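Need a sequence for this fold. Nothing fancy.
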């Protein structure tokens, strides 16, 4: 084992360590991107619900106002 360490130059070990680090960081980045897209989808769904409820309440207010005008 120590013979292998002596045969392979030190810069090769540095390159291998750098490649391992880059691979790990790329994997983490993909994981974070997946999490971000899931959270974004949840946020967009929540915003759509808010818009829908806002429109429903607006329509309900208009109907209530129309009913009040007719009864007056």
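Here you go.
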């Amino acid at each position: 084992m120590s013979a292998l360490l002596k045969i392979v130059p030190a810069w090769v070990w540095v390159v291998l360590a750098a490649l391992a680090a880059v691979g790990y960081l790329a994997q983490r980045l993909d994981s974070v991107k997946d999490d971000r897209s899931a959270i974004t989808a949840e946020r967009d769904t929540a915003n759509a619900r808010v818009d829908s409820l806002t429109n429903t309440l607006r329509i309900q207010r208009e109907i209530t106002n129309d009913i009040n005008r007719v009864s007056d």
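For context: Residues 34 and 51 are 26 Å apart (CA to CA).
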